[in-house]
Design brief:
The chain is an alpha+beta fold. The chain folds into three domains: 75 residues; 98 residues, Roll (Pdz3 Domain), CATH 2.30.42.10; 254 residues, 2-enoyl-CoA Hydratase, Chain A, domain 1 (Alpha-Beta Complex), CATH 3.90.226.10. The strands form four sheets. Strands 3, 13, 14, 15, 16, 19 and 20 form a seven-stranded antiparallel beta sheet that branches. Strands 4, 5, 6, 7, 8 and 9 form a six-stranded antiparallel beta sheet that branches. Helix 13 links the parallel strand 17 and strand 18.
Length: 497
């Protein structure tokens, strides 16, 4: 019996070691430490970032950093400093440059189980906020699809204008900010504005009637009940391979309608999965069943590897194409900044091997991008009608895909403006700056890419614009309808054989 007792005690000890304990938020920083971090970040961005002043004058960025330095009190929390830096970085208008908490604060925030702002909303334009769900239990007053007009006396427009200042995007592509804010409204409210004890909500219900209600914070309640009999778990535990296979099936999908000769291709990412076999098999299937119309969905595809976007493009494009006209870095070495940049040596090696200095402007250009020409595939090339669905989360490599095909005679882009810039972006390799005193992390793209066949007149600070606009609406939110996909289906019906 003693050995059974020992095993039981050992199991209890092991469980106590592996259980997650709530860590405390990191302590405040002294003003001198916080200011040193701000000044270091400013120096690194000015010396290493290829597009710090691409859309915003240096005087504006200078002033923004100076305001942060002047506003730091005797001590400052990491949350306050992170928010202040996020506002500065957002003014650079580079979607690949964003501010993240330190690892310690991220761990604390991930374990947060306290009160939450009780509304889930969808931002549909600059001054319209539509309810998706109220987290208040048994709340029958606020219904899905209602317009939120005021929260605690402030208009929906005020909340949208205020919170979007902390979100980075390419140029002025607000569609990305609206989607990000929709998905993060409650969290951003807590971390930036701070929670209120109650929320006086003015809204217009789905019948057009103006109403008011008061909500309290949503509290996650602990289940303190103890069951006498252990619950038997019948759900099988999936292996990592099975989980990966399931996730890949959700990210890469092909659905075909053999009767109407139409197909739907979902490409949710260019980053996580090898696509060569999937695309080869998919386009062979399209050929086999003589598919004449193809919808390609790259909504919520935030990018990934350029080579995978190129692979898909080659099955669809009619003319040879390049990834970009120029891919440029402003420095080849990190110098004293190197110890704050990770992964330092890997990206340093890439800069040495792939770039060459241009004597005319002193910048360093990647040799292969401007010269390499990709040709369309001959085998299983799709020549029918193509409909590309995009939205604000169509970003980076996904924007390169839509940009390459925009204007082609058999291509129609449907949806909202892409979040990624249509002229170019700063990406290719993205490092991480870790500020030494606060531990706050900032993403640092090392190259600027200008897309092919672009002139300065094309530098509009906008994303790729759709040929057929489909904006979100309160009715679509209420009914849970995918209006963009419905629009594509309607376009396909016009061209059925």
């Amino acid at each position: 019996m003693k050995w059974l007792l020992c095993i039981a005690l050992w199991c209890v000890w092991l469980q106590s070691c592996t259980s997650t304990k709530l860590v405390t938020a990191p302590p405040k920083l002294a003003a001198s430490a916080a200011k040193a971090d701000v000044q270091l970040l400013q120096r690194i961005l000015y010396q290493q970032h290829p597009s710090t002043f691409w859309y915003t004058p240096q005087s504006t960025i200078d002033s923004a950093f100076q305001q942060v330095l002047q506003s730091i009190p005797d001590s400052i929390s990491e949350l306050q400093l992170k928010n202040a830096l996020a506002q500065v970085i957002a003014q650079m208008k580079c979607g690949h440059t964003s501010v993240q908490f330190s690892k310690a604060y991220t761990k604390w925030n991930d374990q947060y189980k306290g009160p939450q702002m009780p509304l889930m909303v969808r931002i549909i334009n600059a001054d319209s906020m539509v309810l998706i769900r109220s987290l208040t239990v048994n709340d029958t007053t606020l219904t899905r699809g209602s317009y939120i007009t005021h929260i605690n006396g402030k208009t929906a427009r005020w909340y949208i204008d205020t919170l979007q200042q902390f979100i980075s995007t390419d140029g002025n592509a607000l569609s990305f900010k609206y989607l990000y804010l929709s998905n993060s409204f409650a969290g951003m409210y807590r971390l930036i504005l701070g929670l209120d004890t109650a929320y006086h909500i003015n809204f217009i219900d789905t019948n057009g009637v103006a109403k008011q209600t008061v909500l309290k914070n949503f509290i996650v309640k602990k289940d303190t009940t103890k069951k006498a009999i252990a619950t038997v778990i019948t759900t099988p535990i999936l292996s990592k391979r099975a989980i990966r296979k399931r996730e890949k099936a959700q990210t890469l999908q092909l659905q075909i309608d053999t009767a109407q000769h139409t197909a739907y291709l979902r490409i949710g990412s260019f980053s996580r999965y090898t696509m060569r076999r999937f695309l080869r098999q998919s386009f062979a299937t399209l050929t086999e069943y003589r598919i004449q119309q193809l919808a390609i969905d790259v909504r919520n595809n935030t990018g990934g590897r350029v080579a995978r976007n190129v692979l898909l493009t080659r099955y669809l494009i009619k003319q040879p194409f390049k990834d970009g006209d120029t891919v440029m870095a402003i420095r080849r070495n990190f110098g004293a900044n190197g110890k704050y940049i990770q992964p330092r040596w890997l990206f340093w090696l890439g800069l040495q091997l792939r770039t060459k200095r241009n004597a005319a402007d002193g910048n360093y250009y990647m040799r292969g991008y401007a010269k390499e020409v990709h040709r369309p595939f001959q085998k299983h090339h799709f020549n029918g009608r193509i409909y590309i669905l995009q939205n604000g989360y169509t970003f980076s490599a996904a924007t390169m895909f839509t940009n390459a095909l925009k204007g082609q005679s058999n291509v129609t882009i449907v949806g909202d403006e892409s979040g990624g810039g249509s002229y170019g972006n700063s990406a290719i390799n993205t490092a991480t700056i870790t500020l030494p005193n606060s531990g706050i992390r900032v993403r640092l793209p090392l190259y600027r890419i200008v897309f092919p066949n672009k002139t300065l007149a094309d530098k509009t600070a906008r994303g790729v614009l759709p040929d057929v606009w489909v904006k979100p609406t309160a009715l679509a939110v209420k009914e849970g309808k995918d209006n963009a996909l419905l629009q594509v289906q309607a376009l396909m019906r016009q061209h059925l054989p």
